[in-house]
Specification:
Two copies of one chain form a homodimer. Chain A is α+β, with helices and mostly antiparallel strands and 106 residues long. In chain A, 67% of the residues lie in helices and 13% in strands. Chain A binds a DNA duplex (30 and 30 nucleotides) through helix 4.
DNA sequence: TCCCTGTATGACAATACGCGCATTATGCCT
DNA sequence: AGGCATAATGCGCGTATTGTCATACAGGGA
């Protein structure tokens, strides 16, 4: 059994990925570095919201930024999220497959 | 870019793991099948709460149950959560390592 | 059949979180 | 220094979620 502290850390991490808005930001940044204006354009969220979400992702080490004058250029940091999503995708596929077979048997 | 629907599915899945209570249940069940009384004993949560959380995990295919008279025996289903946690753990370690080096440099 | 044990569900309080608006802080340019 | 663009923060509202208590439901044994 993992310690309660570790469970807490895990859950906090997964919580970051439990919001479509944040996943969306991560996916956009995965394509390449972007400034905040582009993210606003791409997602339709308010500047304040995006700023906060990026802050959270940054604290978790999932994104990183570099200042360029007053603008800030953000980019995804690491491939962890890709790997996690790949695993989940595999699972989702399996489940759909299973449901499909279930239907065909019936 | 994944479709919004897919992002939604991912986030819903990760949301399941974003709660220490649910992770805790998963971890206990990973050790082997347990009945609800044992889970109450082990976690200290109320029966109703455990019932609900197990329901969510079951719908996602993360746990599975078999009736044994009036009792219900639950067990973890699949290794996905282990794999996800292993990935996250690696990341956590890396980050702590980095912080450590940062401190030593300073 | 009635009771007794164990599970699921309805109602509710407390809390956390998403999201935007308005404001403030920060850095560049003239 | 003053003004302008951009990013961060305070605040508030609405909604979703956690967790409990009380209650309804199901299955086995006398």
């Amino acid at each position: 059994m993992p310690s309660p502290q570790l469970l807490e850390e895990y859950s906090q991490f997964f919580r970051l990925l439990s919001e479509p808005a944040r996943l969306q930001l991560l996916c956009h940044l995965k394509q390449g570095p972007l400034d905040v204006a582009s993210l606003i354009e791409a997602t339709g969220f308010s500047q304040s919201h995006i700023s906060r979400q990026l802050g959270q992702l940054q604290r978790a080490g999932l994104v990183r930024c570099e200042r360029e004058g007053t603008r800030t250029i953000w980019q995804a940091d690491g491939v962890l999220v890709d790997e996690l999503c790949a695993l989940v995708q595999t699972r989702l596929k399996q489940r759909l497959q299973a449901q499909l077979e279930q239907l065909q048997v019936t």
